[in-house]
Amino acid sequence: MSKQPLMRLEGVSKRFAKRLDTAEKIVNLIGGDRREEVVHAVDRVSMEIADGEVVGLVGESGCGKSTLGRVVAGVHAASDGKVYWRGKDVSTLSGAERRDALLKIQMIFQDPMSSLNPRMRVRDIIGEAPRVHGLISAGEVDDYVDKMLLRVGLDPGFRMRYPHQFSGGQRQRIGIARALAVEPDFLVCDESIAALDVSIQAQVLNLFMDLREDLGLTYLFISHDLGVVEHLSDRVVIMYLGRVVEVAPTEELFAGPNHPYAQALLDEVPRIDTRKRVFQPIKGEIPSPINPPKGCHFHPRCPHAFARCREEAPALREIAPGRLSACHLNDG
Amino acid sequence: MSKSPVLEVNDLKTHFFTKAGVARAVDGVSFSLARGEVLGLVGESGSGKTVTGFSLMGLVDAPGKVVGGSIRLAGEELVGKSEHDWRSLRGRKIAMIFQDPMMTLNPVLRVDTQMIEAIRAHEHVSEEAARERARAALARVGIPSPDERLVAYPHQFSGGMRQRVAIAIALLNEPEVIVADEPTTALDVTIQAQILYEVQKLCAETGLAMIWITHDLAVVGGLADRVAVMYAGRIVEEGPVGEVLDGPLHPYTRGLIGSVPSHNQRGKRLTQIPGMAPSLLALPPGCSFAARCPRADAACTEMPELVSASDRRAVRCHHPHRPDEPAYEGGSA
């Protein structure tokens, strides 16, 4: 990995604050103690994504994986830390450079019905952005849209239809065609296949793999489905309550996860080849990100937790070449 | 196990009479369920698995109607019961758990109010006794400090805890059968495992029979004893979980299992079923899967019957696979 990474995050945090409303400000004026509630959705995450790589980002609800995806895609600005795109700090780019950079990063969402404008025809959904950005002229739109539709396995005859006239799987393909239309280098897929039926999931996953091969795309694949991530990714990043707890090449991770949370997660994924197994769940709930536990976020649920875990947050450190884990147990 | 089955469904038909035509959402479904058994009812969207569950509960509303067949619960025929009879059956003999527990729970009532009401709707017991039973039910599904949780409102629970409360309510009157419709689909993996653990324990300890409706073959593999696969309103294959998942007979089951990533070689193309499920309003004559099936031929224009393939398995196909064929071929399509 001597090459420059496509994307690099350095200590990226994203906080969402609930501002005090008027009533609460008045309470404070008369001596109350109302504070802003701050959610640390993403907490000092550093990672690199190489050109052509597929990185799986895994975690449970509220772990910040979608927020991180949006920071990467430029939808949210990071509260802290730096995002580098091809070696350049995104926040220091000029307007035009920034627009070009963000155009190369496209996002595919979970629910195509809420990410496609229901009042626009497929032709405009797919054709508008490349025309506005000057990739094609107005006269070329129809041919270009046809090409995009064929690329994602849809009939070009569907060009004049509206999103509601398609099934869920087809709609997701339109969402993919829309993203591909601006010739991106990097796709951020946020639970892009979670809402689809198993047989349709397989079709869309195959499409993602074909596109990678044909266009040399890089993916950040956000999912809670470990089976899908295992199948598709080169590397997996596991998040828990805003922090990255483990990073590992896919095969090594599934052969032997290091972090206790990663172990629990992998143990509990139902697999089609296990029968009548005895479920042995990890105890407890996912804590609220408004008020995360001190120290290691996982310690209240961790079977190996000891005194230090309650006080000090473990740093993400290299435990083997290409493998990172944030756990005090690795200090031996 | 065995003995007489607690639930017997025979040739159940539930149709929806819409302006666009008659949708045969459930069209001749038959299965039986023994005490303590978990039956996984698997299918994709629109396969009729949820409507089957609703039919068992007498919850099909207009324009839908159960138009034929029989449902026998512990020997008692349920099809054709009056709404009054259904009210006394639901929750007492047969209960349901839904995908979204917010649908089952009333957001403006405390959990204890709802639970006590559910008990006293069926039995004349004192409020104290009912509260004690509610407390015990919460404890049984693994809710910590049930006394405190009893006086909480649904929004004060997390998603997983809410689903536990829904399960506890379903258990209150010790029903014979629980119909669970995608109860863990909306939950996170670690929370799903906790719920599956509780359910597994309940069925083993109390002899409760369960129908687990899901699209997730992996959950069924881990939890169920038997599985029935539905496609376009009909059961296409049925049998013990291990036998069906390891050696599927029906091409659809085979395609479905082949689509699961963990069944494929990493990074290779997934085996995919071409096309998509047909509209229930315009089902082709004959086998509804024929248009997507690699084995279809002229014989498939005639509807195959669900025939037994061994003493424990049944399949609805003119050209079934052999159970010893490798479960997937990986890569093609």
Descriptive account of the structure:
The complex is a heterodimer of chains A (332) and B (333). By secondary structure, chain A is of the alpha/beta class. Chain A has a domain at 7-104 and 184-257: 3-Layer(aba) Sandwich (Rossmann fold). Helix content of chain A is 33%, strand content 22%. In chain A, α5 packs across α6, α5 packs parallel to α7 and α6 (141-151) packs across α7. The longest helix of chain A has 18 residues, at 198-215. Chain A is globular, with a radius of gyration of 22 Å. The model of chain A has no long low-confidence stretch (mean pLDDT 88). Chain B has 333 residues and is an alpha/beta fold. Chain B has a domain at 7-231: Rossmann fold (3-Layer(aba) Sandwich). In chain B, 30% of the residues lie in helices and 22% in strands. The longest helix of chain B is centred in the middle third of the chain and has 18 residues, at 189-206. Chains A and B meet through α8, α9 and α11 of A and α7, α8, α9, α10 and α11 of B.
Task: Detail the topology: elements first, then pairings.
The complex is a heterodimer of chains A (332) and B (333).
Chain A lengths: L6 E12 L3 H8 L7 E13 L4 E5 L6 H9 L6 E6 L2 E2 L5 H9 L1 E4 L3 H4 L6 H11 L8 H11 L16 H13 L5 E5 L7 H18 L2 E6 L2 H7 L2 E6 L2 E7 H6 L4 H9 L38 H5 L5 E4 L2 E3 L7
Parallel strand pairs in A: 3-8, 3-9, 6-7, 7-8
Antiparallel strand pairs in A: 1-2, 1-4, 4-5, 9-10, 10-12, 11-12
Helix pairs in contact in A: 5-6, 5-7, 6-7
Chain B lengths: L6 E12 L2 E13 L4 E5 L6 H8 L7 E10 L2 E2 L5 H7 L4 E4 L3 H4 L6 H10 L6 H14 L5 H5 L8 H13 L5 E5 L7 H18 L2 E6 L2 H7 L2 E6 L2 E7 H6 L4 H9 L47 E2 L5 E2 L18
Parallel strand pairs in B: 3-8, 3-9, 6-7, 7-8
Antiparallel strand pairs in B: 1-2, 1-4, 4-5, 9-10, 10-12, 11-12
Helix pairs in contact in B: 4-5, 5-7
Structural class of the helix and strand makeup of chain A?
Answer: alpha/beta
Q: Cα distance, first to last residue of chain A?
A: 29 Å
Overall pLDDT of chain A = 88
Briefly note the CATH topology name of the domain at 7-104 and 184-257 in chain A.
Rossmann fold
